[in-house]
Amino acid sequence: MKFQDQSNIPQVEFDFAPMIDVVFLLLIFFIVTWNFARMERDLDVAVPAAEEGADPEQAVGEIIVNVRNDGIIIVNGVQVSEEDLLNRFQAIAKEYPDQAVILRGDQEAAFKYIIDVLDVCKKANIWNVAFATTRPEEAETP
């Protein structure tokens, strides 16, 4: 009986470079998305619940404005005044006319504070403004 010589079979090596590339791309993706999600949530803002509403796709580059119950305005984790917000929005609207703004007003905030931010958006010529809400079942659970 003739056996095949095992020493002449070439050894197959596993190429790690593509796998390392994919792992690094996934790592970058998760870090970037985590950073955007972190900027969106201000823990001091509890948005009101709404029965009706849509879950829109988050647009790239949209600005999330948080209005706390005491009227403090937070953009990207930084407290800003109305004048600073107006200056920022005017500069952004000049470069990006269709800029999207998500307004997250605290449910305990006076309506005046929300209207003040809407007035700033109007003065800066930003018309694409949406309000953030939660579903009723999410609002009831602490």
- Specify the CATH architecture: 2-Layer Sandwich
Q: Give the biggest beta sheet.
A: 5 strands, mixed
The termini sit apart by 77 Å
At the first level of CATH, what is the class? Alpha Beta
List unreliable stretches of 5+ residues.
Answer: none
What does this entry look like structurally?
- This protein is 39% helix and 15% strand.
- With 142 residues, the chain is an alpha/beta fold.
- It has a single domain (38-140), classed as Nucleotidyltransferase, domain 5.
- A five-stranded mixed sheet has the order 3-2-1-4-5.
- Strand 4 (100-105), helix 3 (111-123) and strand 5 (128-131) form a beta-alpha-beta unit.
Helix and strand topology:
Layout: H1 17-40, E1 63-67, E2 73-75, E3 78-80, H2 82-95, E4 100-105, H3 111-123, E5 128-131, H4 136-140
Parallel strand pairs: 1-4, 4-5
Antiparallel strand pairs: 1-2, 2-3
Task: Tag the structure with descriptive keywords.
142 residues; alpha/beta; Nucleotidyltransferase, domain 5; 5 strands; 15% strand
Quick gist of this model?
The chain is α/β, with parallel strands linked by helices and 142 residues long.
